[in-house]
Every structure is written in C-alpha cells, then in structure tokens.
From TrEMBL:
One Pfam family linked to the record: Epimerase
Keyword annotations from UniProtKB, A to Z: Isomerase, Multifunctional enzyme, NADP, Oxidoreductase
Pathway(s) this gene product operates in, as recorded in its UniProt entry: Nucleotide-sugar biosynthesis; GDP-L-fucose biosynthesis via de novo pathway; GDP-L-fucose from GDP-alpha-D-mannose: step 2/2
Catalytic-site annotation from UniProt: 136
InterPro entries, per database record: Epimerase_deHydtase (IPR001509), GDP_fucose/colitose_synth (IPR028614), NAD(P)-bd_dom_sf (IPR036291)
Organism: Fodinibius sediminis
Full protein name: GDP-L-fucose synthase
Length: 315
C-alpha cells in the first residue's frame, strides 16, 4: 500500500497540506500534487487529461472553495459553482479511469439547520439548510451523493468524510474570508498589539460549535484510506462542543488580550448548534487526539511565526 500512487487534490490548503504531511510521514512516497495554477480543477478537459495521464490508484479530494459566513454570503455563485465543478470533474475522471479509491472531504454544514443534536449521518436531507452557508452545503451534498451513486451503481469505493469545523497551522487568517478560529486569533492578537483595544465579534456568542484540529482530520483520512471503510459517509469530529463566547475567552487568554469583547448582535449567528455524532467512526476505531486548548495554542504559535508572510485570500 505504501507504493500506491495517490493524488492529493488541494494540497496547498489547510486540509490538503496536512494530509500530505501525514501520508508522507507514514511512508507514502508516490504522491502526486498540482497547484491551482498548474491544474484548474474547474476545467473538465484539464482534469480528464491529468487523471488519464497519471493513472493514480487513489485520490484524496480536499480541494474546495472555502470561507466563513461573510464570504459565503457575499459570493454565493462562486461557492456553489466552483465546488460543483471541482467535485464533478475529479470524481467523474476518477470513475472513468478506474481509480480504485477516492476519499471526498465534505463539511458538517450539510446538515439541516434545526436538526436534532448531535447530528447523525442519517439526518442528511431531512430539513432546510442554514441560509448563510447553503451554497457551499448544496455543493458538498452533491459531491457526497455523486460518490454514493457511483458506489451503488458501479461498486466504487468512493466515500465521504464529513468533518466538523476545522482549525490549525496554515489556516486562512484573512479577516474577509476566514472561519471563526483564525479570525478570532488574528483579531485578538492585533488588538493586543494596539493597546488591548476592544475586539468586536459577530453575533451574540450563544451558538455552540465543535472544533477539530486539522492534524486529527488528516489522521482520520489516513485511517479511512488504509482501512478501506465500507460505508458512504462518516462524521469526523470530537463529539464535544462549546459556545462561541467561551471559545472567544479561550482565544483571548491564549493571545494575552486584556481588553473588552464587544458582541455585534446586528450580525448573524448562523446555525444555533452544530455537534456531530461520531459514534460511527468511533466504532471503526478512529478517535481524535488533540484537545481544543492544545490545538489553539499550536495554531497561535504558527500564526506568530508566520504572520509576516500570511497570504490574503480572495474569492
């Protein structure tokens, strides 16, 4: 298996880069990658030509257009179209070239906004989505169902891992397009550097969220790949959540900020609660290893060491 030729799509992003590290440390040496400038995954012809020429035995599909509430709300077309195009092109090219295994990375935002908690895999498509990220969610649901359809009709071993909210080193810290953890880290750090100014955060702070350190997700991908999991989708998370207000307090403590936190209640909260039921993946033998405070400290250290070279992410 260590000689398998594996294509990691999206190796430059938060998830893909960590997956690449984990697989290489495990001893996988025949890994192929392409940057977005070398291969536009939205271009069907380019993708077909690439997969046909390379003939990988497996694909880890971590490439996606991602962002927080603000980015999803401002760029709905890009979040829907780009992700549909990327998924359709890669998954179909994999099928047409008899790629043996494909791991598709989804998102917990696929679940209905008001579904019972914790979220079980069978809750998919049982209710309305959260409006602020519905565009991304619809795309991810389509990708999941495409893999499921290929399994049902052709017996393909293509399955989906559905991670909860992710954070970690190499995250996107651009305040216009980032998710909650990197946005908080940057806001609290910069406020500390400027005389501990007040930090303004979106919403009420009451919504509850689950957060998974990206290293743990990458190890889940490796686990799923090596164990050739047989079902079509698995939730990947910690099984624990906390309020956004409590998260802010932890990040404030880690960054040393001593000012006030101001909650802008004119901004949306998003889904009231989002906690995954991870009993299915636990029954297969995988469990997360990094507690939230440790993961946040490691992420903050990375931010401090790389803040002068942070890239601004545009849509």
């Amino acid at each position: 298996m260590k000689e398998d030729k594996i294509y990691i799509a999206g190796h430059g992003g938060l998830v893909g880069s960590t997956v690449l590290d984990v697989f290489q440390r495990r001893g996988y040496s025949n890994i192929i990658t392409r940057t977005s400038s070398e291969l536009d995954l939205r271009n069907q012809q380019e993708v077909v030509s690439f997969i046909t020429a390379e003939q990988p035995q497996a694909i880890i599909l971590a490439a996606a257009r991602v962002g927080g509430i603000l980015a999803n709300d401002q760029y709905p077309y890009q979040f829907l179209y780009d992700n549909l195009a990327i998924q359709n092109n890669v998954i179909n090219a994999a099928h047409e070239n008899d790629v043996e295994q494909l791991v598709f990375l989804g998102s917990s935002c696929i679940y209905p906004r008001n579904a019972s908690q914790p979220l079980k895999e069978e809750y998919l498509l049982t209710g309305a989505l959260e409006p602020t990220n519905q565009w991304y969610a619809v795309a991810k649901i389509a990708g999941l169902k495409l893999c499921e359809a290929l399994g049902k009709q052709y017996g393909r071993n293509y399955f989906t891992l559905m991670p909860t909210n992710l954070y970690g080193p190499r995250d996107n810290f651009d305040l216009e397009t980032s998710h909650v953890v990197p946005a908080m880290i940057r806001k609290f750090h910069e406020a500390s550097e400027n005389g501990h100014q007040p930090v303004r955060l979106w919403g009420t702070g009451r919504p509850r969220r689950e957060f998974l350190f990206v290293q743990d997700l990458a190890e889940a991908v490796l686990f799923a790949y090596e164990n050739r999991l047989g079902d079509s989708m698995y939730n990947i998370g910690t099984g624990e959540d906390l309020s956004i207000k409590k998260l802010a307090k932890i990040v404030q403590q880690i960054t040393g900020h001593q000012g006030d936190i101001v909650w802008d209640k004119s901004k949306p909260d998003g889904t009231p609660r989002k906690l995954l039921d991870v009993s299915k993946i636990h029954s297969e033998g995988w469990h997360h290893r990094t507690d939230l405070k440790t993961g946040l400290e490691r992420t903050y250290r990375w931010f401090i060491n790389h803040r002068n070279a942070l890239k601004e992410v545009t849509i």
